[in-house]
Structures are given as structure tokens and as C-alpha cells.
Amino acid sequence: MYKNELDKHIQNQSVSNSFVFFGESTFLIDMYTKMLTTIDDANTLNYYHDEYDFNSAKAHLSQGSLFGDRNILVIKSEKKVPKKELDILIDYCEKNPDNVFVYAYYGSDHKTYNNKKAFAKATTMSVRFFHPKDFEAQNIVADVAREKKVNIDKYTISHLLSIHNGDVALSCNEIDKFRVYDKEITTKDIDNLVYGLGEINLDDFIKKILAKKEFTKDLLNILEHGEDEIRVLTAITSYLTQLYMFNIYIRVNGAPNALEILGYPAPKFVVDEKAAIALKFKPYTYSKLHELLLDSELKMKSSNVDKGAILLSTLIRVQKLL
Known about the structure:
Layout: H1 3-11, E1 18-23, H2 26-37, E2 43-48, H3 54-62, E3 71-77, H4 83-95, E4 100-105, E5 125-129, H5 134-147, H6 154-163, H7 168-177, H8 187-193, H9 202-210, H10 216-224, H11 229-253, H12 258-262, H13 268-278, H14 283-300, H15 307-321
Parallel strand pairs: 1-4, 1-5, 2-3, 3-4
Helix pairs in contact: 3-4, 5-6, 5-7, 11-13, 11-14, 14-15
């Protein structure tokens, strides 16, 4: 199902007690996960990335509570939970309506869960979240503003979103900062108080790194405006993968073809720019860069680590490899 169908179930109080959330919008996945698992006096177990352990997850949902509390299990990961394990965890929710289970999948393979047959034998709600459309994004930010008691109209919210290239997460982070102002927030306030990530386009940031230019101020600004360290790292990995595809294609065919490389047509100036950057590096360099980035991503997903320090160290090492 999609977001609008889930919203109707929430309004009608007909939601299930087990959910599989996936799709393009990590913000909406996080928002609905929090919404459906924020229950007073609940016994909640959260797993992030590589922390997931099937046996302890199963034990959590299967245990009874002496005090009648509800057992909530949340798994947030870019890796897939094996289907057999997922079915077993869901089954514990089928047997016990007091359990709540949310599997928030942040990976890119949506076909597995975007299938009505995937959970046909259970009442599980499998929901795909797309990036919010303009009016949806405005409504989400407006709801957050009301919750935070920030006085801001929709026109100003639209201006805020445009500064952040439509990024709802970053815009909501700004709303939280406006709580200290006991007045209506205007577009002038937005211009004075917000330095948009739109002014530091992530692609431009990556190109600055690849050009071996100074990047630390831009990185600090990006992180201060709510971007996650792991997301920055995976964006760089994705960008380099795309460049490598250009590199190999040009070596084999002599000229780039965006439709065959990317799967969609792209403006000539974009293709020419990517081709020029792609050919600056040898295949061996791409291999070493990917090895470094993937190793750093794994370290970031471990518990109790300074992700910012790992990211900064990784980017410095990236420039040394170029």
C-alpha cells in the first residue's frame, strides 16, 4: 500500500500491529515508525543497522509481561532481514495483538516488499513511501510547526522548503530552531537565519572533494543542517559508482551514452561533465576508493563511534588516493 492508504487506516483506527516500511523517503519511514511505536509504558527494543539479532528479537516478542506492558520491536536497516525470520517475527504479532513490530528497510531493493503476495497470509501492512509532493511537504512541515508551537504560514514554509531543495527533514530541523523566537517567522527571517543546503549542493560538494579542494567548512555546514554522516558517505559512494560506469562504458564504446549508463536520458552538459571527471581516474583508483568508503560505512554503523570523525578522516584519505 501507499501513504494515503495507511493514513486512512490510522484515521479509522484500523491499523495492524506489524509493519514493513520501505521506499524513497527515509524521512517518512522514520516519521511513521516513530508515530506507530510511541506508546506509553511499552517495552521497546530497537535495532539499528548491523545490531539486529534474530534470536533476541524473537525472544522480545515472545515474552510475556508481568505488568501488562506492550512489547515493541523496531528494526532499522539497509540490509534485508531474511524472509523466514521476518515471517516468524510477524507471526508473533499475529498471535499477540499487544505486540507491535516495525521493520524499517532503508535499502534500494523495493521489489521484495512492493508485492501484495509478500505478506498475503498476515495482516502486516507493507507500505512504500515516495518523496512527498510539494503540497505534502508543506503540510508535514506545517504540522511540525504546530507541534513545536512555531508561528509560520504556508507561504514562508514554501520558501523554507525551496531553500532546502524540497528536503523535508532539513526543513523540519529548521522549525525546531525557530522555537526560541516568540514571533511570527517571515521569509526575511528565513533568509537571515537559514543557510540552505541548496546553496551547498551535495553533488557540488562531492565534485569539490574529487577536485582535491578544501571542503571542511562545507561539510560542517551540511552536517549542521541535519544531513546524516552515513547518508553523505553513501552519496559519495553512489556518485563514484556512477563515474566508474561512465569510465568503463567510454573505454569500451569510445563515447558516453546516458540512457545506457544511467537508464535515463540526461542533458548533454551533465553527460559531458561526468564523462570528463570519470576519465580522470583509473579503474584501480575506483577500486581503492570503493574499498575505503565501504569499510568506513561499516565502521560508522557500529555502536558508540564518532561518525563525524570517521567521515572527515575518510574524505581526507579519499583525496590522498586521487
